[in-house]
Amino acid sequence: MRTFAILAVSCWSGFVLMALELLSGRILAPTFGSSIYVWGAVITVFMVALSVGYLLGGRLSLTTPRLPTLAGLHAAAGVLMLPVVAFANPVLDNIFEYTSDPRAGSLIASIILFFLPAVACGMIAPYAVRLLVQDPQAAGFYAGLQYFFSTAFSAAGTLLTSFYFVLIFEVNQILYLLIGSILAVAAICYAISRRSDT
Amino acid sequence: MTPRALAVALLCALLPPLPAAAELKTIHAERSLYRNLFVTEDGDTRCLTFRKANAGARQTCIKKSDPEFLVFPYTRMMMGALYLNPNPARVLVIGLGGGTLPMTLRALLPDAAIDAVEIDPAVVTAARAYFGFKDDEKLKVFTEDGRVFVKKAIKTESKYDLIMLDAFEDDYIPEHLLTREYLEEVKRILTPTGVVAANTFSSSGLYPYESATYAAAFGGFYNLKSSNRVIWAQQGELTPLVTVQQNAKTLEMPFEKRGIKAGFLLTMLSTAQDWPASTRVLTDQYSPSNILNAR
């Protein structure tokens, strides 16, 4: 049950991360266009955020790693996505007032809107590995398992979002679905941690 | 060499060579930031093609012996927007291709200030090198995203009397350039008598969505359907048909040598709504244009 909860969080943070990255291009395009710079800025910010997240998540796993903390990190990723729904337009308008250059503009916008949720998603990976590993001999196996699930679900998040979600839903509706589902998965993970504690 | 390949090679050697006029020559090929780009020549016709030299979508074609002639019907339909407002002082063209539209406008309207916007620097270079595109004092070219250009124009309160939207490829649409919000932004940089001419899709699953979106932003519009579909829309009320016909007469001379015939354009004009009223409008929140276009 515990392993299931850890892997469910891994899967879903991978799914949401790439769905968000794909949507971020659509969110920025009305203001900064869809030139190569905009995609370059988005991908750069996501990669930097992930690398920071890996570092912080690994650090956090050194002191009393617990399943509820993993659930909390996952929920934080969802909560940190709320400003994207609520404030993307005013944030983008203000940045455009400040600079209409698509390179600077899309970098600043990506940092403000997507950096923190992507950091939270990045923190999941090392923290989940730490929770999965009981025996150091099997550390590589569990790391591989975690990467497999989170990356496979990243692929699914990219495909489903670009092929189907955008055809059915509005961007903000998709974001609400992602946030809602994150909170649900986090709640399930938390409930499982409570049950296995007692 | 396998026997089969040998047989094919022999057969090829035996076949008479094709006449030179039918031979498609690639005179320039490059991989730009956004696409594969080819300049091909077939006898007197020179074309700018994206993706593949043979089977790709032809963006622009010119006749080398008569560069003023508009080869594609859609360019004639775009130019016909001058019937609504024959003397625009400031013109904006979004999407350059080989530069046919801006060059034709430059020749027809020597006093007009024309801005052309193209996202791909390689397309600008190819237009200059192979299609006689010349930018000058009155015809300026900007290498950037069309929507960013429009947003900047709103900021600086620039206004245009004629805006041509021609940024779509055959099978790829920059989705942020086909939303109600974008068209409303375009409307904001039009003068009160300003006109929009848009080159769009006529036959794909996108047709009703695109129509509903233009209707949402502009109200009514003149619809011209041939192999492409061109929309003429206006900031204010549509120029009445009587005036359109009168303007067509005044423009007859300069239009004729470019292959634009009033008869071809005016018989196409329609304001009828030929899409379901319930069609979903494309917005910045909902813009799956490429998926819809593939249907």
Compact description:
Chain A has 198 residues and is mainly alpha-helical. Helix content of chain A is 89%, strand content 0%. The mean pLDDT of chain A is 96.
What does this structure look like?
The complex is a heterodimer of chains A (198) and B (295). Chain A has 198 residues and is mostly helical. The model of chain A has no long low-confidence stretch (mean pLDDT 96). Chain A has a single domain, classed as Growth Hormone, Chain: A. Chain A is built from 6 helices and no strands. Chain B contains 11 helices and 11 strands. Chain B has one domain: Vaccinia Virus protein VP39 (Rossmann fold), CATH 3.40.50. In chain B, helix 5 crosses helix 6 and helix 6 runs parallel beside helix 7. By secondary structure, chain B is an alpha/beta fold. The interface between A and B is medium-sized, with 21 and 25 residues.
Largest interface: A-B, 21 and 25 residues
What coarse outline of chain B follows from CA principal-axis ratios? globular
| Annotation field: number of helices of chain B | 11
What fold name stands as the CATH topology of chain A? Growth Hormone, Chain: A
Q: What is the average of the pLDDT values of chain A?
A: 96
Q: What kind of oligomer do you see? A: heterodimer
- What is the C-alpha radius of gyration of chain B, as a whole number of Å? 20 Å
Overall mean pLDDT of chain B stands at 90
CATH superfamily caption of chain B: Vaccinia Virus protein VP39
The side-by-side strand order for the widest beta sheet of chain B comes to: 7-6-5-8-9-11-10
For the secondary structure, the number of strands of chain B is: 11
Q: Please tell me the total number of domains of chain A.
A: 1
Low-confidence stretches of chain B: 16-21
SSE run of chain B = HEEEEHEHEHEHEHEHEEHHHH
Taken in chain order, the helices and strands of chain A follow as: HHHHHH
The span between the termini of chain B is: 43 Å
CATH architecture of chain B: 3-Layer(aba) Sandwich
Strand content bin of chain A: under 5%
